[in-house]
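Can anyone check this?
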Amino acid sequence: MRDALLGLTTRGRSFVAAGVAVLAAATATSQDDLLRIAVLLIALPVISALVVSRTRYRLSSGRRLASPRTAAGQESAVTLRLDNISRLPTGLLLVEDRIPYVLGSRPRFVLDRVEPRGRREVTYTVRSDVRGRYQLGPLSLRLTDPFGMCELHRAFTSQDTLMVTPLVHPLPAVSLSGEWTGSGESRSRAIASAGDDDAGTREYRQGDDLRRVHWRSTARLGQLMVRREEQPWQARCTLLLDSRSRAHGGEGPGSSFEWAVSAAASVGVHLVRHGYFVRLLTDTGAHVAGSDPGLDGGSSDVEGSLLDALAVVTTSENTSLRDAGASLRRGGGDGLLVAVLGSVDPEEAHLLARLRHGSTAAIAVLLETDTWTAASTRARAAARASYEGSAALLRASGWRVISVRAGQSLPDRWQEAAYQHSASVRAAAVPAPSVPAASSLSSGGRS
């Protein structure tokens, strides 16, 4: 009852104040009619508070997301379900779901009456231009009387998570050979289970052939282990995202860093859908996302984990790419290497050039970050000179460099890697000029 009296609305408090004033006037003038009016004005909000406080509704709620992930700038539907599991009909219910302000205004609904064992569903939409992880809920209720004199607040505890991921652009299927196409004898592959058959074991499952029992692992682990079946060969790719704040320009959703995050998401999803196992690294050397094949050759939700990691990635205070280079060297450096880079000076370009070895295919999406900022003419000229020097060093070491300026889209620039590869193949196919042997140049020799 105390909570109900404290929950009196402005209307309820006004009735009580008016009733007290009329009661004072009735006492001063000894008017019975005024006294009756005063009692009515005071009793109405008190009785409403008593009714609301004695109400014993048993309600349950649920929340259903159209998708746990949505791209930045896209709308997503959220459905709220409210069940009345008591034997009494509810009164007026004011329903409000708590959401972050970046997703929009808080949705509020009015449910007039929910019958016993009844259910109500309401749907609202959310939209965010900023990627990230957002909590939806908890759902709160306001119980009120029909006269609007009193309100009681109740809240559920359940919450749901909505991931707003970077925008993913579909990339065109370009014709590249070797590790990029993922087919043919030159495809870069790595066996899913590192090591020999002795290392490829798993727990015994009902129905497994007892001839596959690996006794050495069984004795070492204390439980029955069997050799897993032969694993398929899989193409691998390492995706490097340059998240250094000093390497990017601009602010907010229109910054070069947000463009780089969207580009990394587009490349990663494109490669995952083409059968690659993709691992995502940042300039800090941290293994942000990725997956290896499962015990029986399957794979986890690599695409989902990649997008979730990119949804929450932030800029770093690193000043160099040395940590990323060390992490790449520890990882073996096999498979395709794709780097989405901000501003790179020649020293860092030398470091990246050493990361490519042998026939490893390496693609650099190199951003001209000065085009994202309003710099002076002199600063632009210095940045342009550093950019061209770094791009030349990478190309000389065998990298395929995709140059990107502000306002350009990745799908339009993606085919540049294929053109560079075709040009290098044609250059390699040109035969070197033949040099005649020294003996054939002598005057007395026989040709």
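Reply from J.R.: I decoded it. Residues 59-165 form a domain with the Immunoglobulin-like fold (CATH 2.60.40.10).
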